[in-house]
Every structure is written in C-alpha cells, then in structure tokens.
Amino acid sequence: MSDPKIEKEMAVDEDVKNNKTSCSYLTIGSFSTSALIRIAAVGVIWSFGYMHWSIAWLLPPVFLSVWKYESKKYDELKRLTAQATVMANEKDIITNRMNDLPSWVYFPDFDRAEWLNKVLYKIWPGINHFVRNLVRESIKPAIVKALSEYKMPGFQFDRLVLGRIPPKIYGIKTYEKDTSRNEIILDCEVLYAGDCDISFTLGTIKGGIRDFQLRGMLRIVLKPMLTVMPLVGGVQIFFLNNPEIDFNLVGAADILDFPGLKQALRKVIKEQFARFLVLPNKLVIPLTHDIPTEILKMPEPEGVLRIHVVQAKHLMKKDISVLGKGKSDPYAIITVGSQEFRTKTIDNTVDPKWDFWCETVIDTWSFGLDAAISIWDWDPNIPGVETDDLLGRATTEVSRVREKGTIDAWFTLESAKHGMVHLRLTWLKLSKNPGDLQAALIETQQLRVTSMSTALLTVFIDSAKNLPCLRGSKQPDVFLEATVGSKTERTSTMLRSSDPVWEQGFTFLVAHPETNNLNIRVIDEKTGSVVGVLIYNIANLMSKVDMEDTQQPYDLLNASPESKLIMSMSLRILKYEGPESFVDDEEDEDINSLKKRIERQESNISGSQGSSRPSTPLKKQVSKESLQSSTNNTGSDQGANLPEIVDEGNYEETITPAYVSESNLHPGLLHRNPSVMSSAGEFKLGRIQLTLRYSVPRQKLMVVVHKISNLPLPHNDPNNIPDPYVKLYLLPDKHKETKRKTAVMKDNCNPTYDEQFEYIVSQGDLNSRILEVSVCTQKAWLSTGTKVMGQVHLNLSEIDVSRATSAWYDLVPEIKD
C-alpha cells in the first residue's frame, strides 16, 4: 500500500520539472521573438533612409504601437490584481488592499462566506459544464444576431472553458424584513477573475478571450417553501444592476483591441449578458415538478418607476472650438437594471433642458436596485466606435423613491469636476380596482405627455397545442411574438414541435387599456410564415375578478380549429398614493430641504438669543464708524452685491468652524468660536457656509457649498468686484479626480451656490482625509496674480459627519504646497 505523503512529494517534484522545462522553452521563444522584432524594426528604419522616404510615414504606426503597449500594460495590471484578490486569503486582503475590502468588513449585515467559497471550489467543474451549455444554447445566438448589426457576421465559439479558478463570494446577506414567509432571499457579492480559455471565429478572424472579469451583486431567491423534500420549489438567480465586465482579446483577433471594434464586441457581450441575468431577467431553476412553473417564471411586478429628466446645469466643456474650449453636446442615458433609455442630444450647451420622460417596471425584489443616469458629450463617430466623453453620472436607490413616493431634487454628478442634473422620480403602485383608471387618465392628461402609461399588463405564455404542420408533414420551428403598442416581446424557438411549451412571461405598459389590444403571432422560424394569430382586447380584463385570467385556452386565427394558445393575463392600474411611511433620514435630504432646515435653525437661534439671552461681552459689535466706513467704500454702486456688514455670531450654539492659521500649516487644525470674530472672519477674507455628511451604506462623503459672505474688494476698489467660485480637493489626493468646482458668480461678494458634491471614500479611509475648500476668482487677486482668495482645511477626523453638519468657516490665506 503506497504512502500518500510520498506520492504527494513525487507529484510536486514532477510539477517542478515540468515547470522548469516549460520555462526554458518560454525563455528561448521569448528571446527569438524579441530578436526578430528588433531586426524588423532596424530593417524598416534602414529602408526608409535608403528609399529617401519621409519619416512622417513612420510616426503614426509608432504612436499607435506605443498606445497599444501602454493600454495592454494597464489591462494586465488589472487582471493580475483581480486574480490575486480571488486567490488571496482574508489576511492578505485586509493587509494589502484596504481600499477594496469585502462588504462584510464595512456592512455588519453581510456575513463572511469562506465556507461557501470552499464549497464553490468543489462544485466548480460541474458549474463550468452547465455554464458552457448555457452560453452555447442561449447566449451565442443572441451575440450572433447583435454582431450582425455591426456588420460582423460569422461569429462562432470554438472553445469555451471557464478554467480552474471559480468565482469568489466576498460577502453574503440574508433578508428577513420585507420578505414573504414563503421565500428566502440572499445577496452575494461576486468577483470572477478566472483563467478562462475562450476561442472564437469571427468571419475569417480567429481569436480568443482571456482574463474575463466580472464583479457585481448577485441575488438568489429560493421559493416557494415546501414541507417535503427538496423543501424549496425552485431557485431564481439574477443581478440587480449591471455587473462590471472586462476582458482582453488575444490571437489573430488582437486587431480588435484597437479603438472601436473592441468596444463594439464588449458592448454586445454586456448587453446579451444583461438579457439573461440582470433584473428583470432571471435564471430560473425548478427543483421539483410538483410546483407549477408559472409560480417561478411569472413576472412579479411591485410597481412602476416614472422618471422625468428635467435638465442639467454647469456641465463640463468637452468640445474644442476654433477659438479654444467649446461647450458640449450632452445627452443622458437612464439605466434601471438591464433597461436603458436615452434622451435627445442638445447641441452646444452646458445647461441642457431635456424634459424627457420614461417608465420602467420594478420587480418585487427591488431593494438594492439603483436608478442611474449618465450624461455624455456626443461626438461624431462610426458605428461601434466609442468617442463620446463622460460628463458625469448619478445614482439613487429605487427603494428611496418607493418610501418617499416622489423625489424631486438636483443630483451632483460623480466622475466629474462639476455639474448637476435635475430629476423627478415618482413611485406608482399597482391597483386591482378598475375604478382607479379614470384618475390615472386625468393625471397623464395633466402631464401633457402622450407616452405615459395608465396600466400594466402581465402576460405569461405557457404553451400551444395542435399547431398545423408545414408542407410535407414537417413540424414547425415556432416562436411567439406579443405586441402592445410599440413594444414587442419574443419567446425562444421550439424546434420541430406542434405542441410547443414556452413558459415565458412579459410585462407591458399600457397607455389606454380601454382601447389597446394585445396582438400575438405564432411564427415558423424556417419559413417566416405565420402559424396562428390572436387579437385580444385588453378592456375585457377589466370585467374579470381582480382583472385576472389564469391558464385559459384561446383560439388561434389562421390555424386549425383545434389549435389553442394557453396563457395567463393580469391587468393593474397605476396609482400614486404618496409615501408608504414617514422617513426621517438626513442622508436622503436634497439641497432644497437642507436649506430650509438650516434657515429654520438659524431663525430659531436668532429669535431665542434676541428674546431670552443677553448679549455676550465677547461678541464683537458693529460700530457706527464701521457702518459709515462701509457706506463710503461702496459709494454709489449699490447694485453690485457688495459685502454686507452682518454680525453672524448668533451661530455660536450650533457651529464650530475649523481653519488653519498661517502659523499652523500642519494638518492638525485649530478651532475657534465664531462669536469672537467679525462677519468677515479673522483674516478679513470672508466666510463660507458648508454642510458635510457621510452615508455609510453608500460609502459617500457629501459636501454642500451653500454660500459665501463678505468677500473683500481688492484695494477697496468698487469697480473691481471678484468673480468667485469654489474649488474642492480631498487631500492628500490633490489631482483632477478629486477636484470639484462650483459655477462662477460674476461680480458678486456674497454669492449663493447651493451645490452638492460627492466623494466615494471608504469609512476606514475617511478619518485620514482632509477636505480643502478654496474660494477663487477668475480675476487676478490683489497684486500676487493668484486666483485663490481664501481657503479652509477641514480635518474629517475632527468633524462628526455621521449626520448632516452645517457650519460657517473663516477663510484663511492660501497655503502653498
């Protein structure tokens, strides 16, 4: 009987020998390739000189090869980092990657899942086989169809192996509240950065996909619960939002790595992935035949989200004009799960007004689902080549809209130096009462938007029976198309079947249920001929009990008398009922509500001090001489919004400003009570009002720049009024990615901005950051030529940002780096 320990040592020795042999071959091959490349380069340069050609012909390929080399280095770094994260243990992750910690570190409701990763490693070969079949049978035909639109025919998978490295579960969360007793809902933070081996043919090009990476939040729903084995009727798997997907192209298809073609292929793969696994699309796995499939595959809408993209302002300028920096040609893309909507493009503006409306159906398990908007600058391009520039993006959780009923607010754009977008989001509930239809129709008429819906139709296509055969007694390859208004949904194709079973569900937003029809066609894929037709008047559902019709057979026109279509339908009226409950959450406040709360606090404090509290001797009083001096300085220019003499010491109960003096340049910051200062601050440079707050669930620091008071005039010259704006950095990272900037206020010493900015920063990293706020002017300041009029440095470790904190801060002289 052999010793397992000796066998293991012998296997290790064999692996070492094989690795040494492969490394020697690799070294010789790499040396030969490198030598040939250099010989070819010398030959090309020599030929150019010998033939007296212009060196200008050599520059474009040199630049292109350098760009490609640098791009590949970046992709290789991302791949190695992701794979190292997947294979590393928890101690290495915490020690070396503090900025990319798993969700269980920061969120106490997420649990560690190392035990699940070990199980996943064992069953990965079986999952590998299942996914390979799924891609070949379902995803590949969709990719072929999508690539044909880009004039890329002949796509074919030659090899599809997902490799040895399984996905890693970073954290897992189980929901208890807001869920039915008949289901279990799990959220898994998934990262896949495996060693996949995928080769394909695209026309005459042979290539492959390597270093495929995917990261996102995967939701698993187990339902319904049973009292007999297997205890659960089925499993639903889907991503709430589009996961991050990246990959590299290798082989002859390496030419696709150039701008344009790679983006087109990546876009197609992402879209087809979303069609199968991003909400509202789900992967459904029945575990028993005793449960009707309709329970698992029927769409379960919870409501409808209505989105109004009103306008944007102060966007970045991305176009280049003849006279220098031009404006932008902005358009917006709204994304909810796998659904996308696009506004029109407005040319040559940084303050576009779209007035765009869209609606999307929200599934029952929508908590955690985001409504995202990204704004782009349109540039002329060819199909598939992405040259549009990102102007910023913003997100909000659908659950917030459901709780509040309506959110009407300005959202600060992320991934942008400045810019805001105005959105109105409304949550519409689903009513079974047909009497609510009249109120819904009146509401859409008041909105004066013809594309708005008043009802939601849910259709579940179960099967068909006794479809007619084709000539020669051949059974058809049939699929079904269902159309309501301008929206058409299609089932999968059932091969050679006169009794096809589809078991697929769809949802349709209906504008006029009293007049609209549901049009259904059963089509043979081989010949394109229509096998059967059904026209159903949606108004018939309004007379049914609860406006539902379940598992009913319907006669098909243009077919035999025995041909039937079995399906279920339900109709729901869209109804606005306001918020579900009062939500007192400061992180949900928009700028308008925050302004009202600050003004209410200020008025209360001012009133209480004026009536019940004697004036403190420390408070600096404004003398008649100072008032007279201010009046003389302003002269006759009363309309220029010059500095006001206002004693703001009445904020002493609620604020404690932090600033850096000239003698204290270290990040250790001093605090000073504003009651002992003048309204222009200690350095007579003015004051700025800010609100800071930190959202733990979203890992975001939010800074609201409200207003500035009493900026001084250069040399007391009333004809030289500054044009102020505010610039922010999150130190120590003083670069363009942490730079934020407000709009410029022309000729104003007391500007009001009320602009909100956000930084994505982990809770563990927050206490090591300093927020630098600089008040600048477009005009030269004093005699130094600098544009910085004053600064504030806020050490975030010394400020309680767990709730919204509003304060006035004295501006101090600029601190040079």
From TrEMBL:
PROSITE patterns, A to Z: C2, SMP
Cross-referenced CDD domains: C2B_Synaptotagmin-like, C2C_KIAA1228, SMP_ESyt
Gene Ontology terms: biological process: endoplasmic reticulum-plasma membrane tethering; lipid transport
Keywords: Calcium, Lipid transport, Lipid-binding, Membrane, Metal-binding, Repeat, Transmembrane, Transmembrane helix, Transport
Compartments where located: Membrane
A GO CC term assigned to this protein in UniProt: endoplasmic reticulum membrane
Residue ranges crossing the lipid bilayer per the database entry: 25-46
Domain of life the protein comes from: Eukaryota
SUPFAM superfamilies per UniProt: C2 domain (Calcium/lipid-binding domain, CaLB)
Annotated region described as Disordered, given as residue ranges: 598-643
C2 domain: residues covered: 286-411, 433-558, 684-809
Name of the protein described by the UniProt record: ESYT2_2 protein
Organism field: Fopius arisanus
Gene: ESYT2_2
